[in-house]
C-alpha cells in the first residue's frame, strides 16, 4: 500500500503513547498493598469494565455525558469497596492514578522526531484535566492536545475525530490517525482519516479484514516510514 500524503498526525494517547494498565496497577498496589498479583488483576479488570461499560452507555444514550474524571472517581469507589478500603483520601489517590501513566520507552523520542516534520495533535478520551496530568507525567509534547470532553462524547463517536479536522483546518484524508487500537482506527477511517496502527502489548490488534494505511512496530518504526526519502 502506498504511503498516504498527510499534513498532520493525530495520536490516540491511552495505550498508544502511555501504558495505562501499568499506571493503574501501581495505583492499585498503593491502595491494596497486601493483594497478590492475581488480586490486583481482578481489581484492574473491575476498573476497566466499569469505564468501558459507562462510556458505552453514554454512546448508546442510556446515560448523560460525564467526563473521564467522573468515571475514574466512580471506578475508584467501586474498586475500593471491593478491596475493603474506606479512606476517602485513598479513593481520591486511586482515581488520580489514571493520570499517572508512564510513557512507552519510544514515546517521547518518537514524538520529538515526528514533530520535526509534522504538526502533532493528541486526541484522547481523557478529560481536559486528566489529559493535562497525563501529558505532564509522561512528558508528552504536542502542537495541540484535544479531549473528547470538547465534543461531550467518547471515541468512537465521529464527533471526536471531527475535532481534529476542525482544529487542523485540513480535510480528513490529509490527517493520519495513529493508534494501538484497531477499533479506534476503524472509527477514524469511517470519517475519512488516514490510519496508522502501532503495535503495543495492551492494544487491540488489527484483524485480517482491516486495511490501515500503515503498520508500525513502534514510534521509531513509524517515524522511519514517514520520513523515508
Characterization of the model:
The chain is of the alpha/beta class. Helix content is 48%, strand content 11%. The chain is built from 9 helices and 6 strands, in the order βαααααβαβαβαββα. The protein has helices at 20-31, 37-59, 68-83, 88-96, 107-115, 128-138, 158-168, 182-190, 219-227; strands at 8-11, 120-124, 144-147, 175-179, 194-198, 214-216. Strands 3-2-1-4-5-6 form a 6-stranded parallel β-sheet, sandwiched between helices. α8 links the parallel β4 (175-179) and β5. The two termini are 16 Å apart.
Please supply descriptive tags for the structure shown above.
229 residues, alpha/beta, six-stranded parallel sheet, 6 strands, 48% helix, 11% strand
Secondary structure blueprint with pairings:
Layout: E1 8-11, H1 20-31, H2 37-59, H3 68-83, H4 88-96, H5 107-115, E2 120-124, H6 128-138, E3 144-147, H7 158-168, E4 175-179, H8 182-190, E5 194-198, E6 214-216, H9 219-227
Amino acid at each position: 500500500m502506498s504511503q498516504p500524503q498527510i499534513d498532520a498526525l493525530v495520536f490516540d494517547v491511552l495505550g498508544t503513547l502511555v501504558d495505562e494498565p501499568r499506571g493503574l496497577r501501581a495505583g492499585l498496589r498503593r491502595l491494596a498493598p497486601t493483594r497478590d498479583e492475581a488480586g490486583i488483576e481482578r481489581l484492574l479488570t473491575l476498573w476497566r469494565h466499569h469505564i468501558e461499560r459507562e462510556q458505552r452507555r453514554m454512546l448508546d444514550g442510556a446515560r448523560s455525558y460525564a467526563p473521564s474524571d467522573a468515571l475514574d472517581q466512580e471506578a475508584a469507589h467501586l474498586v475500593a469497596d471491593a478491596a475493603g478500603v474506606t479512606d476517602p483520601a485513598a479513593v481520591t489517590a486511586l482515581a488520580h492514578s489514571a493520570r499517572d501513566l508512564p510513557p512507552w520507552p519510544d514515546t517521547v523520542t518518537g514524538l520529538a522526531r515526528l514533530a520535526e516534520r509534522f504538526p502533532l495533535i493528541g486526541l484522547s478520551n481523557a478529560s481536559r484535566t486528566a489529559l493535562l496530568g497525563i501529558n505532564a507525567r509522561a512528558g508528552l509534547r504536542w502542537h495541540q492536545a484535544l479531549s473528547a470532553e470538547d465534543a461531550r462524547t467518547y471515541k468512537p463517536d465521529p464527533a471526536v475525530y471531527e475535532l481534529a479536522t476542525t482544529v487542523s483546518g485540513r480535510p480528513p484524508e490529509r490527517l493520519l490517525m495513529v493508534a494501538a487500537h484497531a477499533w479506534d482506527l476503524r472509527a477514524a477511517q469511517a470519517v475519512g482519516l488516514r490510519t496508522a496502527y502501532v503495535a503495543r502489548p495492551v492494544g487491540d490488534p488489527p484483524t485480517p479484514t482491516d486495511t490501515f494505511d500503515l503498520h508500525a512496530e513502534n514510534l521509531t518504526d513509524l517515524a522511519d516510514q514517514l520520513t523515508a526519502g
